[in-house]
Amino acid sequence: MRTSYGYDTYRGRTKLQTALTILIVILTVVLLLSVAAFFFLQKYMVYTDDGQARLELPFLQQNTPPPSVPTQSEPLVIVTAEPTPSPEPTPAPTQVPELFPVSLFRAAVTEGNAQQLVAAGGGNAALLNLKANDGSLGYVSSLPQAISLHSSESDPDLNRNLQTLTGSELYTIARISCFKDNLAPKTDPSLAIKTNSNYNWRDGEDLRWMNPSIEAARNYIVGICGELALMGFDEILLDNACWPATGRLEYIKVGPDYDPSNLSGTLETFYQEARKALEGQDVLLSVAVSADALTGENTLSGQTAALLGEYADRVYVLGAENRGDCDDILASVGLSGNAVLYVDSSLADLSTTGKAVSMP
Q1: Are residues 116 and 241 in the same domain?
Q2: Which residue has the higher pLDDT, 358 or 194?
Q3: Coil, helix or strand for 264?
Q4: Fewer CB within a 10 Å sphere, N or C end of the chain?
């Protein structure tokens, strides 16, 4: 008989043992997955206000509309359309009256017979020489330069008589010899056109000229324009408002104060300053020009039709042999009809002889 010597016979695993082993493995896997899921899903855990937990997975939120967040109501903005501004009315063109001026002696002002003399001359306007070629003024000026140059009149009654005349129904024109001025450069040489030897240059009439490039010279003339406008003149006539175009011009010293390539540019500055001085005044600004400067036959004066069309209300054309050419040139820059007067002699001569400038 066989014995086992204390050992049982091996019969293999039973079915129960196998099932338990499988169950243990499954439970272990489930436990591991649960722990992993806990840590993985913890960031998707949402706690409500009452302490309850709720899981919100991203893929479950894709089709869920976001909760509405109450927004603060914005104030109602009412936009009022600005009315379309009406265009600024175009200023009416300056009315230039038909003119037949008669030049008068200065004595006509003090004697009080200016209107009778104009009527006797067949004209409708009085032209007074308020700054002559010699530099003397026909009125009492308060400009410091006029006082220092000794160019002003001293009779206190003269201005009152002038204002009586300008306050009448008679049309009045104040003629100013601008840069042709024998007195100012003699008294103050810094104002003068200079020769190559640094003397005061003189023209063919042996008269000195102020230099249009020098600001002090321009300011003097502009100041006179302003005073006469305030005195009530209807028109300020700028004569010799240019560079000299006759005489020994080769003696003039060329340099910053006399640049033959920019003569018109200097005059434009002066015309601009003169117009600015008359702003707000009921006064016309007229300019005298020689016919040869207007037609371009003589360019040494610096005056051009374009400058006159830009700054002058009326033009006095001196010494025109062919008025048709001048008419065409002036019409091209907007000057025609009553805005153009032809004068056969110099305005300085007429101002001393009492002749009519332009007869009907």
Answers
A1: yes
A2: 194
A3: helix
A4: N
**b or e along 80-119 (b: 16 or more beta carbons within 10 Å of the residue's beta carbon)?**
eeeeeeeeeeeeeeeebeebbbbbbbbebbeeeebeebbe
Which residues constitute the domain of residue 34? 15-60
Give long-range contacts, CB 8 A cutoff, 24+ apart: 296-303.
298/245, 299/263, 300/243, 300/244, 300/245, 300/249, 300/260, 300/263, 301/242, 301/243, 301/244, 301/245, 301/263, 302/212, 302/242, 302/243, 302/263, 302/264, 302/266, 302/267, 303/241, 303/242, 303/264, 303/267
Looking at this protein, which amino acid is placed at residue 242? C
Distance CA 274, CA 176 (A): 12
Number of structural domains, the chain? Answer: 2
Same domain for 318 and 196, yes or no, is yes
Q: Could you give the C-alpha distances from 359 to 96, 122, 124, 150, 346, in angstroms and in order? A: 17, 7, 10, 36, 15
Residue 47 is assigned to a structural domain of this protein: yes
**Mean of pLDDT over the chain:** 83
